[in-house]
From TrEMBL:
Keywords tagged on the record: Oxidoreductase
Protein name per Swiss-Prot or TrEMBL: Enoyl reductase (ER) domain-containing protein
SMART domains (alphabetical): PKS_ER
InterPro entries: ADH-like_C, ADH_N_2, ER, GroES-like_sf, MDR_fam, NAD(P)-bd_dom_sf
Species this chain originates from: Myxozyma melibiosi
Pfam families for the chain: ADH_N_2, ADH_zinc_N
Limits of the Enoyl reductase (ER) domain: 12-350
UniProt xrefs under PANTHER family: PROSTAGLANDIN REDUCTASE (PTHR43205), PROSTAGLANDIN REDUCTASE 1 (PTHR43205:SF7)
Bilayer-crossing regions: none
Amino acid sequence: NKSIIYREIPDGLPTSTHLSLESSTIPASAPAGGLLLQTLYLSLDPYLRGRMRDPETKTYSEAYVLGEPLSNFGISRVLDVSSTGAAAASGLKKGDLVGSPFAKTQFRLYQPVPEEQVAHYAKIEEKAGVPLTYFLGILGMPGMTAYHGLVNVGGPLKAGETLLVSAASGAVGQIVGQLGKQFGMRVVGSVGSDEKVKYVTEELGFDAAWNYNAEKDPYAAIDKYIPEGIDVYFDNVGGPLADAVFLKAKVNGRIVVCGTISQYNTPREQQYGMKNYMEVFQRRLTIKGFIILDTMINEPGTIQSIVGSVAGMVGEGKIKFKEDVVEGIENTVSAFQGLLTGKNNGKLVLKYSD
Ligand code: NDP
């Protein structure tokens, strides 16, 4: 068996010293009352960086435990089901595909699931024409985040309003921008390369986008691409762009704070400090943060209707979704580093086996 074990808390970009690839024996069968799973796909998400922290620091997510494998949303095949206890009662059968709605799939090729954790795994009902990996992306947590963040937190949306989204070609950003178009908004994206500019404008129908690595002054970029001012900013990155938006938002503008990835690898005392905070009252801005996990836990009905809406748009071809699939457990750490430095092109998914 091979696993990615959490060995050390990183203070910057995580490396193989912090996340180490280790071998062990493959379990022969399910533990009593439990399951034996084979991991097919794992989602790599920026929030995993926040789980690599001092466990005394409490946040919305559980800190990873040193010496244990990483875990996240994943898709596994059931290899063995114990004939007793929770596993037998679960109705799961050998060969079923299961997801883990609460991010318990471990970063290992074969995963024994003890009886008390069987309830964390749910059978995936495959849909014709829908790639399995979409359950980790547009039909999974990132899709819920994009829809809930834009429509419920950032709304009510009005046709003709201007939406700016950062990390616009990523898992969440690409959906946010396309949803904005569905609501009749003018959509502008900020991305990290010319290729990503091309993708969001030519493939996804964004009205404009800029590469912040080439056009480095966010004030000038906003003046150039959004001369009318910003009604809604969907913030995935924080830092200097978010600061510039305070000054360039329209009066009564709304800012949805989804994430601040530009600051995730920087210690708190060295993070970018906002200079335009006074614009929040001068421009009567509304700033709202949210955590999709809250909605997943407390509002299953909302989540069900979001997934239904998004699945409908996917089925009707109204929305596209780009994935970046990296094969092999040995490429886990470099793929995660790439996610935190903008190397991914679309939703990053790890493929561990067929
Ligand atoms: P993405 O697929 O967008 O991948 C991350 C992207 O962030 C990179 O491709 C890169 O795009 C951009 N990025 C990386 N480093 C920097 C940097 N230093 N400055 C600016 N941009 C950077 O990831 P997701 O769509 O999964 O996540 C997007 C955001 O949404 C994250 O902040 C994440 O934490 C947040 N999130 C929040 C949730 C919530 O419940 N609030 C739930 C899910 C995600 P580029 O090359 O364009 O810069």
